[in-house]
Design goal:
The chain has 365 residues and is of the alpha/beta class. The chain is built from 15 helices and eleven strands. It has helices at 24-31, 35-51, 71-81, 92-102, 116-121, 134-148, 159-177, 184-190, 204-213, 223-239, 252-259, 261-268, 297-303, 321-335, 348-364; strands spanning 56-62, 87-90, 108-109, 124-127, 130-133, 156-157, 195-196, 220-221, 243-249, 278-283, 314-318. It has a six-stranded parallel β-sheet, sandwiched between helices. A hairpin with a 2-residue loop joins strand 4 (124-127) and strand 5.
């Protein structure tokens, strides 16, 4: 008799009927059995069963308008408060729109079928199906310009320091307004989670920084600082015998900035390393167009971004982040105890100095 294929020894597709009151964990584990549902289940398992081990440092990239949709409040802040995210690279737009909530401004559920000419006439701004008054932009711009004018901002700095200092003010505004925690930058400040922006000029925050420079403001957001600090974070965890995991929400520049930490260490600095240990991405971009947003973990191996021995610990879920992130968050919070925050912001200078010492050894060898 022909031996049964090993592929047919895998679990059967035989789910129980979905019943009223089913828990999210049971829904994910018991009914997401194929296609991108199965990839989402695998993402939940990878995150909660491996990436949340104490020795793993987790970097997250944020692309797409997540905070205007409320995902900062509903998912990202709970992940930070649970110690499940250690450092972040975000578009500036996500941080700008996040600030609306922190300083007491409102965004509303809308419709993508609205008449945009009418919205313009009525002073309403639309992000797909999110509405807000045009004054929200003006008030947020005024908030940033007032802060940027302060003495503590009159020098070059990396974006992590900039966002940390901004977060302190947003945190205080939330306290004065007596509102619950609504701002991602405020939560990151409290838990010393560094937040980087790979393209600081590509948002309203950067536009306000540029505008202030026209009037003599001396703030300069230095990308060199960000490149070295993010590489130092990954190098530090590997030197300590830990692992590096990346959660990539979308693609674009933030995805690359998180992943380029390993080529920076290996290719540019010439320090022996293997790549990130865990790769979890949620994206709607295809790989066949050749763009970074859809690039697979296998392709990342060829750049040294992902450890080739860890490809089995890589999951790409082709789904909308606004669907996948709440499920991933709820699953992790339901199945894993909180971790002690690593508070990487407070160790930035130390980690960069260790990286610099190692690089100088290479140069002088």
């Amino acid at each position: 008799m022909k031996a049964k294929s090993r592929h047919l020894r895998r679990p059967k597709i035989d789910p129980r009927p979905i019943a009223a009151g089913i828990s999210l964990v049971d829904l994910v584990d018991g009914t997401l059995l194929a296609y991108n549902g199965a990839r989402l289940r695998e993402a939940c398992h990878l995150f909660s069963r491996k990436m949340l081990d104490d020795d793993v440092t987790i970097g997250m990239s944020l692309t797409g308008a997540l905070t205007p949709a409320g995902l900062g409040m509903s998912a990202l802040i709970p992940l930070i408060e649970a110690g499940f995210v250690d450092w972040i690279v975000s578009t500036g737009a996500n941080l700008y729109h996040d600030t609306h909530f922190g300083i007491g401004l409102d965004l509303h559920q809308g419709t993508w079928q609205a008449d945009d000419i009418q919205l313009r006439e009525e002073g309403v701004v639309r992000i797909y199906d999110v509405f807000f008054d045009y004054s929200v932009l003006l008030e947020t711009d005024a908030f940033f310009r007032k802060l940027i004018a302060a003495e503590e901002f009159q020098r070059p700095m990396g974006t992590a320091e900039f966002h940390y200092r901004i977060g302190r003010y947003v945190n205080e505004r939330e306290r004065v307004l007596k509102q619950r925690r609504k701002s991602l930058v405020s939560a990151a400040y409290e838990h010393a989670v560094p937040i980087y922006t790979s393209s600081p000029g590509d948002s309203s925050i950067g536009m306000n920084v540029a505008a202030m420079a026209l009037n003599g403001n001396r703030l300069l957001l230095d990308p060199n600082v960000d490149v070295n600090e993010t590489a130092a974070i990954v190098f530090d965890t590997k030197q300590r015998g830990g692992k590096s995991g990346v959660v990539l929400l979308g693609g674009g520049s933030p995805k690359n900035f998180v992943l380029q930490t390993e080529p920076q260490i290996q290719e540019v600095l010439g320090i022996a390393e293997k790549g990130h240990d865990y790769f979890l991405q949620v994206t709607d971009a295809r790989p066949d167009t050749g763009g970074l947003s859809g690039a697979t973990p296998g392709e990342a191996v060829s750049w040294g971004k992902v450890d080739p021995e860890k490809l089995p610990d890589s999951v790409v879920c082709y789904a909308d982040t606004t669907i996948a992130l709440p499920i991933l968050t709820a699953y992790a919070l339901s199945t894993h105890a909180p971790r002690k925050p690593k508070r990487l912001y407070e160790r930035r200078d130390q980690m960069v100095e260790v990286l610099a010492i190692e690089y100088r050894k290479i140069l002088n060898a």
